[in-house]
């Protein structure tokens, strides 16, 4: 999912565990934070989510902030459990056909936060709504696994032809285009969450504020949403599994300053500082390590820069490669992010493809970058770099993103002789600009939604959606389509690697580094479940 927050730090990977440790059950691990919200045994916590969520409609959300709220308030057919594996959630029973192309889900007895029953129709409505092209859901492609899902989203078929059908209130039949071994992981992702169809049909803006219209079915309900200030979640007394939910309240504040976030934690005003919800200041990392307060874990995520391939001069592949090759990633992770992240010379993290720790090109290859730049200038008819149009690097407002951008700006000046301007905007403005193609180079991060390389590669299969680069390659798309029907695991991985090689050779994106989660937490807060995909669940958390 889109990541507007993370610019993470960690200890040197211990041999960088290439088998993703899917889920970590975080108990009381480090001093700090004082009593926080849980003083006197009160089951209340405060966390920082940095910024206003892009959308709290599961069908429109496409970023880590929105996802971090929705994971607490909604629940899909399955949920990723403490062991990192999908477990039954809204689905009480799941039946699969022998060819793994048809699933029958029996919906358990559960209610929405307003007392309405959660029905199979709520799932059918939500999925078809997200696929309806008029709703412009950026994450609609996550539903392309459904029969006719892509065709419906492209306007080539009716949403009525999509392979999801409520047989009755308790029975949901799902038909897939191809066998998908990780489908039950997908149904735990927020694009697959249900929506109260009765409410949504009556009020299309049901999701814009807390109140009677904002109904959810997860462990917590949103009772307050003061835009650009805070969100308050409270325990959902009617949640089917509420006996395991200990926290009575989660207050999510929106402070977009890492130093303030850490100060609030040290003063006992927050129970968690840092990722996956907030951000720690980079300059504090060394001292937090020295004090043995810092928690660090690798996650499946990549920090990269996107090129708008439809805007000069980045319509030229050699100019794109020149910019990418001239970045010193090793210096960035050692001197700026300071957490031992792995320099990124590939799109898919090494947690999914082991050899991607080395990647597809050499880091800081200035001599090759200069050759490519000269070639690209000639191809575009530029006499020298002074003839290039003004170039701007854009990023969303964040101290850490600014530091990385400033360093890379200096590298491009020193290594290529090119002046690049910097531009920043708050997340909602920034992401709208990227989606609208109003940029030349833009910062973005991507965290895996499920543990498969296709999740990183499919972003660039077609123009539009989260593919802000406007890049398209028929051979790349064909390889991804072949991988969808390849049942041999090794052969499928080979196809995905071939596709990634094309992506890295055409360079619509310049990977910078692979992510980690870094945070400090109140010593009384326990049992927060952190996924190796980079998200947090508070369903089982408590203050001791």
Question: Can you characterise this structure?
Answer:
There is one protein chain. By secondary structure, this protein is of the alpha+beta class. Helix content is 27%, strand content 21%. Helix 11 links the parallel strand 15 (391-396) and strand 16 (420-425). Helix 8 (317-325) runs antiparallel to helix 10 and helix 14 (474-485) packs antiparallel against helix 15 (489-506). The longest helix is centred in the last third of the chain and has 18 residues, at 399-416. The chain starts with 22 loop residues before the first strand and ends with a strand. Mean pLDDT is 91; it is low at 6-40.
Low-confidence stretches: 6-40
Mean pLDDT: 91
Structural class: alpha+beta
Q: Radius of gyration from the CA trace?
A: 23 Å
As an assembly, this protein is single chain
What percent of residues adopt helix (DSSP H or I)? Answer: 25-40%
User: What's the β-strand tally?
Assistant: 22
General form: globular
Total of helices: 15
Strand content: 15-25%
Largest sheet: 7 strands, mixed
What's the N-to-C terminus distance? 32 Å
Quick structural gist:
The chain is an alpha+beta fold. The protein has helices at 64-73, 120-131, 149-153, 183-186, 197-202, 258-266, 285-290, 317-325, 329-337, 366-380, 399-416, 427-435, 454-457, 474-485, 489-506, and strands at 23-26, 44-48, 78-80, 86-88, 91-96, 102-107, 164-168, 171-175, 220-226, 230-235, 249-253, 272-274, 295-307, 342-343, 391-396, 420-425, 441-447, 509-521, 525-526, 528-531, 536-537, 542-543. The strands form 6 sheets. Strands 12, 13, 14, 15, 16, 17 and 18 form a 7-stranded mixed β-sheet that branches. The chain has a 4-stranded mixed β-sheet with strand order 2-11-10-9, with no helix packed on it.
């Amino acid at each position: 999912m889109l990541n507007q927050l993370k610019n993470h730090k960690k200890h040197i990977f211990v041999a960088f565990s290439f088998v993703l440790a899917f889920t970590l059950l975080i108990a009381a691990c480090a001093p700090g934070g004082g009593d926080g919200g849980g003083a006197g045994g009160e089951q209340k916590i405060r966390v920082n989510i940095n910024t206003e969520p892009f959308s709290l409609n599961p069908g429109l959300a496409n970023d880590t902030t929105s996802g971090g709220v929705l994971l607490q308030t909604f629940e899909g057919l399955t949920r990723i459990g403490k062991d990192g594996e999908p477990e039954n959630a809204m689905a009480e029973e799941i039946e699969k056909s022998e060819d793994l192309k048809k699933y029958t889900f029996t919906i358990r007895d559960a209610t929405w936060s307003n007392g309405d029953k959660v029905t199979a129709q709520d799932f059918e409505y939500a999925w078809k709504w997200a696929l309806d092209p008029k709703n412009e859901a950026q994450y609609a492609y996550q539903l392309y696994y459904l029969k006719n899902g892509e065709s419906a989203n492209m306007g080539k078929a009716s949403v009525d032809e999509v392979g999801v059908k409520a047989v009755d209130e308790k029975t949901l039949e799902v038909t897939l285009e191809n066998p998908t071994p990780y489908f039950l992981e997908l149904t735990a992702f927020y694009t697959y969450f249900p929506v109260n169809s009765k409410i949504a049909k009556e009020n299309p803006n049901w999701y814009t504020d807390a109140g009677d219209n904002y109904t959810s079915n997860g462990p917590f309900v949103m009772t307050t949403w003061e835009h650009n200030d805070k969100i308050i979640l409270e325990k959902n007394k009617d949640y089917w599994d509420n006996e395991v939910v200990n926290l009575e309240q989660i207050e999510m504040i929106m402070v977009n300053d890492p130093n303030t976030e850490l100060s609030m934690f040290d003063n006992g005003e927050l129970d968690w500082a840092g990722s996956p919800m907030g951000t720690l200041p980079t300059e504090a990392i060394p001292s937090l390590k020295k004090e043995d307060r810092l928690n660090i874990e690798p996650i499946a995520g990549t920090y990269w820069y996107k090129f708008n391939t439809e805007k000069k001069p980045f319509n030229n592949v050699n100019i794109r490669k020149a910019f990418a090759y001239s970045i010193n990633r090793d210096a960035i992770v050692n001197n700026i992010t300071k957490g031992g992240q792995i320099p990124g010379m590939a799109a898919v993290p090494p947690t999914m493809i082991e050899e991607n720790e080395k990647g597809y090109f050499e880091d800081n290859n200035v001599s090759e970058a200069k050759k490519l730049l000269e070639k690209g200038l000639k191809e575009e008819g530029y006499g020298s770099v002074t003839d290039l149009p003004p170039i701007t690097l854009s990023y969303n407002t964040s101290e850490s993103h600014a530091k990385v951008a400033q360093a890379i700006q200096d590298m491009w000046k020193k290594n290529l002789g090119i002046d690049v301007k910097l531009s920043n905007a708050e997340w909602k403005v920034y992401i709208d600009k990227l989606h609208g193609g109003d940029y030349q180079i833009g910062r973005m991060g991507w965290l895996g939604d499920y543990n498969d390389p296709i999740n990183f590669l499919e972003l660039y299969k077609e123009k539009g959606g989260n593919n802000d680069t406007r890049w398209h390659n028929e051979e790349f798309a064909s390889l991804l389509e072949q991988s969808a029907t390849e049942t041999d695991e090794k052969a499928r991985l080979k196809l995905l690697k071939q596709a990634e090689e094309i992506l890295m050779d055409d360079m619509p994106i310049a990977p910078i580094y692979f992510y980690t989660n870094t945070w400090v937490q109140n010593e009384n807060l326990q049992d927060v479940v952190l996924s190796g995909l980079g998200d947090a669940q508070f369903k089982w958390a408590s203050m001791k």
